[in-house]
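Annex B. Sample input.
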Amino acid sequence: MEDSILDDKKNNYIMSICYANAKFGLAWADITTGELCVSEIDIDENYSKLNDALVMISPTEIICNQEFALLQNQISVFNQDVLKRPESYLDYAFSLSRAEEETKQQLKTMSLKSFGIENMKQSIMALGGLFEYLKETQKRALPQINNIKIVSTTNYMQLDPIARKNLELLQNSHDNSKRGSILWLVDHSSTSMGGRLIRKFVTEPLQNTKEIALRQNGVEELYKNIIKRESIINELDQFADVERICGKISYGSVNPRDCLALCNSLKKLPRIKKLLENSTSKALQTIYQNIDIQEDTVDLLSKAISENAPSLLSEGGVIKKGYSSELDELTSAQNEGVQWITNLEAIEKEQTGIKNLKISYNRVFGYYIEVTNSQKELVPYRYVRKQTLTNGERYITPELKELENKILGSQERALKLEQQLFSQIKEYLLSKIESMQNTSKFIAYLDALCSFATVAVKNNYVKPKMVDSDKPLIIKGGRHPIVELLTKEQFVPNDTMLNTTDSKTMIITGPNMAGKSTYMRQVAVITLLAHIGSFVPADEAQIPVVDRIFTRIGASDDLLYGQST
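Annex B, continued. Sample output.
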């Protein structure tokens, strides 16, 4: 849950795998955002479907049942150190009856039918192991995990680890940094939430033409309407990571600064909603309908949390003046206390004639009157010695002791009251979690569409026409999007035509450094960009639905740095 450890533009998944009856059940969650997904995969030769799914999800940590643990040496992603090896977990946690009860308890439901997973036995078993493990390690309830998304691997293009590496989806092959990757190309997001969603788009290219068209049409509207696009981007700028703040609220670790960031971000929602009001594309209409402007939450946080609130509640000064009359009285006593001490010091100087007398405070002795040795003979009998120093003496009087009790007592009571009030605010926020999670999900979607539109405008991309898989692939004036951005020379556009009859195969020949690898990769990248809903670097493009990209280009090609095999 710790911000400083997490990558703000990458999900942090924990996965549970259960193998039973020739089928793999997968359940994975990001407890920082509350996302929970399940999938089932049939066993196949070389476990290729499972390998592809694991690489697509890329969990940080994996637990599994004993049966899967015995199989893991045959799974290539673990042997090649692509992913961390799974840890075998308590087998009873994966038993079906126990798993069903754990899942119902977590999702607060009487039946799993409402989530559509009642017949996904292996997935339910994986969920049981996951929830048991989370309960054991986190030692608290996780109310942010309240819904399930069923992921079918057939909904996404299959990309094995080699293809993902050679296409440089998330990092370049030169130094493994983001620069020069497809993610680097398309991620112009304004928010962390949008960045995480774009990463997911890149690693999960769609197979459904309707879903692709939905994204494309949203991108097209933002592409054509510069005022709407730039206005939305301005509102999304400085928009906090509401998804992860919701995770902190559930976790009980939300702090005053998080509440301030949440309030400032939620204040932007009415303006964003207004900008989407007359949208024509279904994607933007859906976002408009799903944004809840959270009026009550904004109202509460605006009244309650001070603009100068510290990160730590123990520092005080969290609750705004006017929110609680009782707290205001105690705060007033603290502030007036400074004046009371100043006045008492002036009176004592006048009555005793000790000009260098001063009243000070430290945590060990509290308030005291300090007199130097040179003025010691002027000290009256009513002063009670408290501490002897090398250069002087420290004293206390009944009047000073009374003031000390008032001042320190008010500080302690004020801090205690602030903690009580902040606990009430946290309880309220907890009740609003589902609504805020849903809104933040659609804000992330809007950010991703704006990012794709910005990239298209900036780099002169066109909307590709998506067609069924039996139609030809036609690219006119295609360009390699990364090479054209990172090389100083002008990229010469070229065409590609592949159909299902006479030219379904092309053989690319030529000497070293002639551009064979670049051309091959260019076709693959344009195809992939079309499948994630992005516009593409071409004058015109018709892309059929592709279920898989195979690629192994050279032994260690490094196109950006002019190296080739």
